[in-house]
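Private note to self, pasted from the team thread so I don't lose it. Backbone tokens:
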């Protein structure tokens, strides 16, 4: 009798609950339900036991390890000890050799999977994209040779990400080493990547050994989520999406078995990483990297290589169509060539002046226009033979004592100085002569920007600051430029062939 009564009470309670839940849901839906993806956060530290959920919310990803020496097996095992059912992905370019101790085909470890990113005749396209296989809301990137000893750290990270879902949450490994926090500026148009230090625990990129928790949705937005070196590659991509990284203070994971400690292993890894970095910058089209120390690294053309772009059609280099300006290495090489040309012309006593787009750049910023691919100089044809190199170049191309190549341009009566025999970025030298009050030219160029002009622009000559020095120029530069380019050219400069595409 008493048991029956208790059952009845239980039934009534269950029924009442169902009704309450039903009406709460209706009320919730009538208020608009889940308006945005992120609210309300799934997990709060205050909810009773988020630990049960963490396994279902997070996929562990192991990406940073060397096949020749690693601690991946024990690292993964340490996670499985704490979260037996959590999904684990081990991602590598090609199957590690020597093989990992984990038997990835062992059925009792269904939740641990290996993924090779490199293509193979045997692997279907879709299977090479592990990001499509992740089923959980979050991913946790775990560096090699680490341990987790309790559920709490991961729960704290998940709770923090719940509070600021569109960011990245980072936690250190070991309490001894402080993590670095960097600001990252990715300038696609100028092919550059700039790092600067910050004392904050909120920034764009983290250095030092750490765990990374983020939304799978964010990972899916990245063009190359797993490219090496990781996680540098990750932060370049998230920084360009303006995603912030937060370092959690007062908690840390444990170190695993020491790896890559020997002199030989470190040397080997450093070499591999240099190659990975080069490849990364190639893929992301970054040609100049400024480190937080102020050190500048170049990944573009050099004097010994060819320049960074191909033959120019209709005066519009290919990069302009990609929404980019001149690669910084090209601008730098062009400045060096121009300085050398100015010095040579000065030495020979040739009357010359800055022309066209270069003069426009000088007026605007004292530099080459950031999208320009050459430097234009006019000179007095009567002085030509004073320069030994111009004189020689009349007959055939000649490399001068400093390695610059002088030539008479094909299809024209003008001259060119190329940076080197291999790197053909160049300065144009246009000969003009005085004819009845006009600076006239032979038929070397059809473009309006190098057209003839009244001689009085050169009487007297003036000078202007350009690439860090004073360079001779016509007087009345504004009138001179507006004569060549039209009114307002200095304030609103255009691409060489603007009809080809709108100005950015
Ligand atoms: C599969 O993994 C389990 C747990 O690590 C281990 O006990 C078992 O021996 C493995 N089986 C095979 C066939 O490798
Ligand atoms: C100099 O550079 C121009 C433009 O890139 C190129 O067309 C020319 O062939 C180069 N001259 C020589 C001799 O390589
Ligand atoms: C020289 O210029 C003046 C005025 O611009 C013009 O009248 C004259 O015809 C020109 N002479 C020649 C030979 O072109």
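Design output:
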């Amino acid at each position: 009798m008493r048991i029956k009564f208790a059952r009845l009470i239980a039934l009534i309670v269950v029924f009442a609950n169902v009704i309450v839940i039903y009406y709460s849901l209706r009320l919730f839906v009538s208020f608009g339900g889940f308006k945005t993806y992120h609210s309300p956060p799934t997990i709060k530290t205050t909810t009773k036991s988020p630990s049960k959920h963490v396994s279902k919310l997070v996929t562990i990803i192991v990406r940073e390890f060397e096949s020749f020496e690693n601690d991946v097996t024990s690292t993964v095992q340490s996670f499985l000890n704490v979260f037996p059912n959590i999904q684990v992905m081990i991602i590598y370019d090609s199957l590690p050799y020597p093989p990992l101790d984990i038997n990835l085909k062992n059925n009792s470890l269904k939740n641990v999977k290996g993924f090779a990113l490199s293509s193979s005749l045997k692997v279907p396209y879709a299977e090479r994209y592990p990001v499509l296989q992740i089923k959980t809301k979050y991913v946790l990137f775990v560096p090699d040779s680490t341990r987790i000893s309790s559920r709490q750290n991961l729960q704290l990270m998940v709770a923090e990400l719940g509070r600021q879902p569109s960011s990245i949450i980072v936690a250190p490994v070991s309490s001894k080493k402080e993590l670095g926090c960097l600001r990252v500026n990715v300038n696609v148009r100028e092919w550059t990547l700039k790092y600067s230090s910050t004392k904050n625990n909120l920034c764009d990129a983290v250095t030092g050994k750490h765990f990374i928790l983020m939304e799978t949705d964010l990972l899916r937005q990245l063009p190359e989520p797993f490219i090496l070196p990781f996680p540098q590659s990750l932060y370049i991509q998230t920084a360009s999406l303006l995603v912030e990284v937060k370092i959690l203070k007062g908690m840390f994971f444990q170190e695993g078995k020491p790896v890559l400690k020997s002199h030989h292993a470190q040397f080997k890894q450093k070499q591999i990483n240099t190659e990975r970095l080069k490849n990364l910058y190639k893929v992301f089209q970054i040609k100049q990297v400024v480190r937080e120390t102020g050190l500048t690294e170049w990944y573009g053309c050099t004097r010994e290589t060819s320049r960074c772009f191909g033959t120019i059609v209709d005066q519009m280099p290919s990069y302009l169509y990609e929404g980019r300006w001149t690669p910084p290495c090209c601008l730098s090489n062009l400045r060096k060539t121009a300085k050398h040309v100015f010095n040579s012309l000065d030495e020979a006593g040739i009357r010359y002046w800055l022309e066209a787009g270069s003069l426009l750049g000088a007026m605007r910023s004292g530099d080459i226009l950031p999208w320009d691919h050459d430097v234009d100089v006019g000179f007095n044809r009567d002085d030509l033979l004073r320069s030994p190199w111009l004189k020689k170049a009349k007959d055939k191309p000649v490399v001068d004592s400093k390695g610059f190549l002088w030539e008479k341009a094909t299809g024209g009566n003008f001259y060119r100085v190329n940076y080197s025999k291999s790197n053909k970025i160049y300065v144009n030298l246009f000969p003009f002569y005085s004819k009845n009050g006009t600076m006239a030219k032979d038929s070397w160029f059809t473009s309006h920007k190098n057209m003839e002009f009244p001689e009085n622009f050169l009487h007297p000559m003036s000078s202007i600051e350009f690439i860090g020095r004073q360079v001779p120029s016509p007087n009345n530069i504004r009138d001179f430029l507006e004569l060549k380019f039209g009114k307002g050219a200095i304030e609103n400069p255009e691409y060489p062939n603007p009809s080809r595409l709108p100005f950015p």
